[in-house]
Amino acid sequence: MRIAIVSAPSVRRAPPEYVQALAKGMESMGHRVDIIDAWTDDGMRLPGYEYIAVTSESISFFSAKIPEVVPKILAAGSSLMGRKSAAFVKKGGIRSAKTLALLMKAMEKEGMRVNWSDMLLSPAHAEALGKYIGA
């Protein structure tokens, strides 16, 4: 299966270690995985994937808000209606559950079917979760 992982960390930087570990877990199950940086990519490639996993973080320790690039990249990838997807949030801050809910709401607004959501506790946890995608 072709899987896209949209990496949307709280600030512009290279994909975090937990995103790479998630991709490694998915690849170990035989999937083709591409990591798409939400800060630099325009999202036009997203409709070409069978499954889309979106990873994000809250913008600060006390906030539950997701980075503003998440809704932008999802809106740019037209025809995401009905696409199976997963929402992952890096555990951190005091409102991680609310951050996950906001991420899922942004994905569902674009018509994506979020069939899995979870909080990523560590890179090892992310790799273990990656092995269950598409299984």
Question: Care to describe what's here?
Answer:
The chain is an alpha/beta fold. It has a single domain, classed as Flavodoxin domain (Rossmann fold, 3-Layer(aba) Sandwich). 30% of the residues lie in helices and 25% in strands. The chain contains 4 helices and 5 strands. It has helices at 17-27, 69-76, 96-109, 123-130; strands at 2-8, 32-37, 51-56, 84-90, 113-120. Strands 2-1-3-4-5 form a 5-stranded parallel β-sheet, sandwiched between helices. Strand 1, helix 1 and strand 2 form a beta-alpha-beta unit. Helix 1 packs parallel to helix 4 (123-130). It is globular. The model has no long low-confidence stretch (mean pLDDT 92).
The coarse silhouette is globular
CATH architecture term: 3-Layer(aba) Sandwich
CATH superfamily: Flavodoxin domain
Please compute the radius of gyration using only Cα atoms: 13 Å
* Strand arrangement across the biggest beta sheet: 2-1-3-4-5
Could you give the topology of this structure?
Layout: E1 2-8, H1 17-27, E2 32-37, E3 51-56, H2 69-76, E4 84-90, H3 96-109, E5 113-120, H4 123-130
Identify the notable features of this structure and list them briefly.
single chain, 135 residues, alpha/beta, Rossmann fold, 5-stranded parallel beta sheet, 4 helices, 30% helix, globular
Structure summary:
The chain contains 4 helices and 5 strands. Strand 1, helix 1 and strand 2 form a beta-alpha-beta unit. Helix content is 30%, strand content 25%.
